[in-house]
What does this fold into?
Amino acid sequence: MDEKVPRSNIIETEIPMGTVHPAALEPYRVRFFVEDEIVQEAEITIGVNHRGIERIMEGLPVEKANALTEKICGICSNSHIWNSCRTAEIGLGIEIPERATYIRVIMGELERLHSHFLYLAHGCEVLSHETFSMRIFYLREIVMELLAMIGGNRVQYGCSVLGGVRPRCDVDEAKLLRLKNDMDAVEEGLTGFVERFLADSVVQSRITGVGALPHKQAIKLAVTGPTLRATGVARDLRTTMFEYDNFDFNVITQPDGDVRSNLVMRALESFESIKIIRQAIANIPEGKVVTRDWEMFDTDIIESYIEVPRGTLYHSYALESGRVRHCIIRTPSMANIGAMKYACIGEQLTDAQLCIVQCDPCFTCTDRAIEIIRR
Amino acid sequence: MFSNVISNSIVIAAITVIVCFIISTLLPGIERKYIHARIQQRIGPILIAPGIMAPIKFMFKENVKVESPVPGLYKILPILCFIVVTCLIIALTPQAFAIPALSSLVAIVGLLKVEEICYVLMGALSKSVMSVRMPFPDQIKGAAHNNVTRSFVEDISSRRSLRMITYGSFPLYLALFAPITQARSIFLPDIVAYQQAHGPILFTVSGAIAAIVFFIGYMIILNEYPFSIIKAKSDVIEGPYMEYAAKYRAIVYLTRGFFMMVLGVLFSVLFLGIPPLITSWSFLINIVVALIFVFMMGIFSAFSPVFTNRQLLPTILGTTLLGVLAVVVGLL
It folds into this structure.
C-alpha cells in the first residue's frame, strides 16, 4: 500500500472538534483539514486533563505511590498498579509467590477482556450501530462483575501490592468455579457477536479499508499494542514477560491495519485471553499470595515494561529511603497518536473519528507526557 | 346551511389534526421502547417519555443564548417546521380536498421542500461551542495551518442538508409521483377516487415498487439511521438542532413525532386511497399504517450503522432507479 501523504495544498477548510465530542470518550482536540469532506490532514492536541500524578508521587512512600498509580486510568487501573509494584519488585529483588503471579495474570486478562469489549462497543457506537454496541456491553458486564468479585470493586481493585496480591483478592474454589462458568458464557456470547458482526455486509462496508495503516508506517511511527498487531506485526510483550512463562497463547495479528483489522484483532485476542484465564484456573498453585520477607534499600532508576490492553506500559522510578524519586510513566496511547493522525488522511469526515478510535486512544492516561524538544 | 357545512368541515378537520397530533406524541416512545429497546434487550424509556414527558420538561427549562448571526430566524425555524407539518396534514384531510391549491401533490412536495430547506438554514445559522467556538488555543505558534478558513460542524451539516435536497430526498418525490401515473391527476381527491374505484395503488406492481421507495425516502427525510448524515453523531453531532434548547427543543421533538405520523397518513392517502377522517372507522387504518412505518423504520435503524457518502450515494442511486421503474411501470 502506498504511503498516505498529507496534502496541505488543497485544504478547503478546517473543522475542529473536541475537547468534548460524543464520538470521543477522551478529552482531546482534533483539527481536521478537509477538502470536500475528505480529510487531508489532522492535528491532535492533548493536555486538558493533566493531573500531575508523577509530581504527586515524587517523595511518597512506594506503597502509597503504587496505590496512586491506579488512579491514572479507569480502564487499565490494574495494569498500572501491577507495573508500579513490579518496578519496585525488580529493583528490590522481591520474589513473588507463584499463586500471586497467577492471580495477577487472571486480573490482567480480565482487564484486557473488559478493555477490548469497551473498544468494540465504542467502535460500534462511533459507527452509530447502537445494537451491536449494547450487545457487547452486556458481555463486558459479566467481566466487570468478575473483576468486582476478585478485586472488590468494578474499577479500582487494589489487587497488587509489593510482594504479591492482597489476601482479599485470593481466589477460592467457589470463585474459580464462577470464573470458569462465566468464561464459557463470555466465549459463547463473543462467538455469536463476532459471527454476526462479520456477516453484516453493511457494517463491513463501513469498516473495510477505512483508516488503513501499513505495517511499515506503523513501525516508523513506533505504534504499539493491538494497533501494531492489527497491521500484521506480531509483537506482544507478554511473550517476554516471566509472568506468562507457564501459559500457552497465540499472538494474534491481522493483515490490513484498517478499522476492520483492529476490531477483528481485538475480538480474536479476547479469545486468547479467555484461553489464558482457563489455563490459570486449571493450574493455579496452592500457597500464599504475598511475601513479606523483603527489605527496603535505595536503588537506581528501575524500569519495567508490561503489555497492557492498549500496548506497552512503561513505569520507572528510583527508591530513596523507601520513597519514590524521578517517576516517569508512559502509557501506550502516547505512541499511537501518530497512527491516529495518519489513519485519518484520505478518509471521509464521518469516518475520521472512527480512524482515531480504531487506535484505542486513552488520552486521560496519556496526559502526563511532556515532549522534550532538544535544539 | 352553507356556513354550517363549512364550519362543520373545519371542526372535523381540526379534530382530525389534533387527534393525529396526540397519537404522534406516542410514536417516538413506541419506536424507542418497543423496537430499539427490545432489539437491544433493554427495558427502554417509558412509552410517553420521549414524545410527551420530554417536550413538557423542555418547555419549562430555561433557554440558552443562541450564538447565531440571525438568532431570531434560527429560533423561529422549528416553529416554521411545525407549521409546515400541520399544513401537510390539513392538506391530506378530505375537508381540504375542496381547495385545489392545497390538495395537489405540487403543494405536498412544496411543503416537504420547505421542511428540508429549514434544515439547511438551521445548520447555516447555528454556531455552537462544539467546534470553532470551543475556547482552545488552536491557532498558536507551531500549530498546523494557522491561516485556513474555519468551519463549524453545523456548516458541514448545512452543506449535507443541501446535498440531501438536491439528490438525497429524490426517491421520496419519485414515489409520491408514482400514483399520479395511474390516477392521471396530481390532485389528491382524484387519486383517492381512483383507488376507491380500482382498488389501492399499493397492490399494483408500480405501487408496490413505489411503496418500497417511499419507505426509504421516509427514512431519509426523517434523518433516521442509516441516512442521518446531517446529524451523524460521529462528526456533526446534532447538526442543525445543536443549539435548540428549552421550548425550541420541545418543538423539535414534537415536530419529529408529528412528521412521522403525517408521512404515514400521506402513504395511506396516496397508496391506499384512505384520507384521514376522524368520523370514519378508516381512520384506524391511517393509524395502523403510521405505526407500521414506525416499526419498520425502528427495525432498520436498529440494525444499521450511519452511512457515509460511500454507502449513501449507491443507495440513493439504486432507490432512485427503483422509483423511475415504478413511474415507468405505472405509465405502461
User: Anything to note?
Assistant: The first strand of chain A starts at residue 13 and ends at 17.
